[in-house]
Amino acid sequence: MKIKWINTLPTEIQEASQFLKKFYNISFEEAFKLIYLTLRVKTLSDSPIYKFLERIITGIKLDEIEKREYLITLSIYTLRSLLKEHLDLKLVKNLYLFLVKKLPKEYFKGVLPKHSIIASQDIIIDFLSEKEKAELSSFLKTKHLILTFKFEGNCEELIYILPYFVNPYLIKKNEIYEILTTFSISEFMGFYLELKHINFLKEEIDLIFEIIKNFFPDCFGEI
Q1: In whole angstroms, how large is the CA radius of gyration of the chain?
Q2: Structure letter (DSSP) for residue 180
Q3: 69-75 and 123-127 as β-strands: parallel, antiparallel, unpaired?
Q4: What is the value of pTM for the model shown?
Q5: 2-6, 18-22, 86-90, 156-160: least confident range
Q6: Phi and psi dihedrals of 178, rounded to 5?
Q7: Orientation of helix 199-215 relative to helix 185-195, angle to 10°
Q8: Helix spans in 100-220 (H)
Q9: CA proximity to 150, closest of 166, 167, 170, 130
Q10: Of 78, 77, 33, whose CA–CA distance to 56 is shortest?
């Protein structure tokens, strides 16, 4: 099995879509699961966040970084699910009104609201810049920095590790399969500890672990 960390994925959202299409033949729509946003959300009251957390919503990283100031990281795929299923929430309405002005229209195809949306004045949203991401604490980096990986192997190998992936994208090339998927740093660490003992994976995953550890040393402490 081969594992590659795709650390050349552009940080600009539309450029990332074009990169995935050019180098991995992934369509615009299929890239939704692999492209992530990190947003800073400020609220004047606790209610919008409390209401949001009452729902069972998967695929979102959320941390309070200051009083009523939060980091939210989610994929375009998850954003579309929010618009389909939770548009009644103030936070989701404001996410939509902010992002619809920032992202290509194709990201919202099929999930555009059927009625007008009014913004809540007590919620302020902005993108977290790359510089700000680099200055996050190690704890927040491990949760909100999303890494993209390519796994290549035969059917038996990939079936064994498939349960550890969230929203993977599968490509078949003759008898070889490729899977593109994402992990936060902490998720990759858990994946590594679970599977580093597997013979067909050990050498490759040890190498990738060392590369990531050297790239983000503050996230690994004494490991």
Answers
A1: 18
A2: E
A3: unpaired
A4: 0.91
A5: 156-160
A6: -120, 140
A7: 150
A8: 130-134, 138-144, 155-161, 185-195, 199-215
A9: 170
A10: 78
